[in-house]
Design brief:
With 187 residues, this protein is an all-alpha fold. The chain has a domain at 94-187. Helices cover 80% and strands 0% of the residues. It has eight helices and no strands. The longest helix has 29 residues, at 9-37. The radius of gyration is 21 Å and the shape is flat. The relative contact order is 0.09.
Length: 187
C-alpha cells in the first residue's frame, strides 16, 4: 500500500503562514474595494468576519489533543458570535437572537447527545464541554427575562433541550460518572 507523503512541520508551518498572510491580504483588498465601490454597504466587514470564523475553525481543528466535544462547543460559540455580528452589521433586527442562536444551541445539544450515546465510556472527556454548552444554552432564557428576545418559544425549546440533554447524558453515563468520581477522589 502506498501512503501519501507527510508534510514536514517546517513545510506545514510555511503553508500555514502563507495561507494566513493570503487571508489578511484578501481581507484588506476586500475592505478597500468595499470603500471604493459601495461605502454605505458593509459587505467587506461581513466577509472578513467569515474569514475570521474560518481561521478560528482551522486553528482549533489542527490543534493537538482536542476532542470532538470541544469542537462542537467552539463551533457553537463561534457561529453564534458570527451570526450576532452579521445581524448587528445589517441593522440588528434580532434574527440572530430569535432564530439562529437557538437553532445552533439545539444542534450542539443533539450532537453532544449523539456523542454520548455513541461513546458513553468517554463521557468524562465530554463533561466540561457539555456543561459549558448547557450554560451557553441558558443565554436565551436570560435574554427573554431582559425583554431582548421576542421569539420566546424557540428560545425556551432550545434551553429545554439543553437541560433534557444534560439529564439524559448523566443518566446514560451514571455508572461511568460514579466510577470516575471514585477513581479521581480515591473514595
Amino acid at each position: 500500500m502506498i501512503y501519501p507523503k507527510k508534510l514536514s512541520s517546517k513545510k506545514g508551518d510555511l503553508v500555514f503562514k502563507i495561507l494566513l498572510f493570503s487571508s489578511v491580504l484578501l481581507g484588506i483588498i476586500l475592505f478597500v474595494i468595499n470603500k471604493l465601490t459601495t461605502p454605505n454597504i458593509p459587505w467587506a466587514t461581513l466577509t472578513n468576519a467569515g474569514i475570521i470564523y474560518v481561521w478560528i475553525t482551522v486553528y482549533y481543528s489542527i490543534k493537538k489533543n482536542t476532542n470532538i466535544a470541544g469542537h462542537v462547543m467552539i463551533q457553537a460559540i463561534a457561529i453564534s458570535l458570527l451570526m450576532l455580528f452579521i445581524d448587528y452589521k445589517l441593522g440588528f433586527e434580532k434574527w440572530s437572537l430569535n432564530i439562529s442562536i437557538p437553532i445552533v444551541i439545539m444542534i450542539a445539544n443533539v450532537t453532544m447527545l449523539i456523542l454520548t450515546i455513541v461513546s458513553h465510556k468517554k463521557f468524562i472527556r465530554y463533561a466540561i464541554y457539555q456543561l459549558i454548552i448547557v450554560l451557553f444554552s441558558m443565554l436565551p432564557v436570560i435574554l427573554i427575562g431582559e425583554k431582548i428576545v421576542e421569539n420566546i418559544v424557540l428560545s425556551i425549546i432550545a434551553s429545554s433541550i439543553s437541560v433534557v440533554n444534560l439529564i439524559l447524558t448523566l443518566s446514560l453515563s451514571a455508572k461511568d460518572v460514579k466510577d470516575a468520581i471514585i477513581r479521581k477522589f480515591h473514595m
